[in-house]
Design goal:
Protein name: Ubiquinol-cytochrome-c reductase complex subunit-domain-containing protein
Oligomer: single chain
Number of helices: 3
Distance between the termini: 84 Å
Keywords: Membrane, Transmembrane, Transmembrane helix
Length: 73
């Protein structure tokens, strides 16, 4: 017959276990939400100029090379 052994778990250990379980999931959802926000806001001139142009890999794609004489405003 199996014996059941109950041990006490300190509150600190319990909170660390819960934190470890949720950190990965919340991190993945946070990265996904941030990427979606940048995707939807990439057409906004402020986001394009202040955020996306300053990322080294994305700079060439989002940089505006249109001469000033060809812009309507």
């Amino acid at each position: 017959m199996a014996r059941i052994s109950y041990t006490t778990v300190s509150p600190l250990t319990h909170s660390l276990n819960v934190t470890k379980r949720w950190t990965t999931s919340l991190g993945i959802w946070g990265v996904g939400a941030g990427a979606a926000a940048l995707l939807f806001l990439s057409v906004t001139p402020l986001v394009r100029r202040e955020v996306l142009v300053k990322v080294p890999v994305l700079k060439l794609y989002y940089e505006d090379t249109t001469p000033a004489s060809d812009k309507p405003f």
